[in-house]
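Here is one chain, start to finish.
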Amino acid sequence: MRMGTRKWVRELAKGRSLYRLSDLMKLSGLQWEATRKAASRLCQDGVLVRLGKELFGNALHPPEPMDVAMMMHQPSYVSLWSALAHHGVVECSQDEVSAVTQGRPGPEATGPISILYQRIRDDLFAGFERINGVAMASPEKALLDLLHLRPHVTPSEILDQNFRLENLDSEVLADWAQRFPKATQRRLRKLQREARRGDAK
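Its structure:
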């Protein structure tokens, strides 16, 4: 039996912000094809927002961009600029969510939400914890991920974002740095020198 838009709205109004197609099947009791057609209709009606092939945002409870990033690629964690801003190490506008994955890298445009995934080698896929359901890199790991995965970013560009070296644990940073390539360690030392030079002025 077809579920009318009003009934969908009632169910989604008391639901969560993100749904996979399989979740909508359970919610409605419909078969896969009927659920797929219903989801397309709800997207046209502005009740759902298509975020991926079988991933939808609830327009009645809009999802946070970082929550979408967790669902789009698994496993993954938020890092680089996004995590540094979250921890108060930098101050920068977040036009996109920066995330690290073990899977396929690349940008994901999901309507108003932009996510950039970058692949990292397996032994460096660590240094994060779940914060309100989002896998978030520690500030020290986020900085090293940034220096490692975006080597074109200069110390000046980082310092221009009101970089706060004092918000990092120097021992944790040094421990993590040893696991990264020598080139990344050199970029870290250069950033630290320039940050301290700026503090001394």
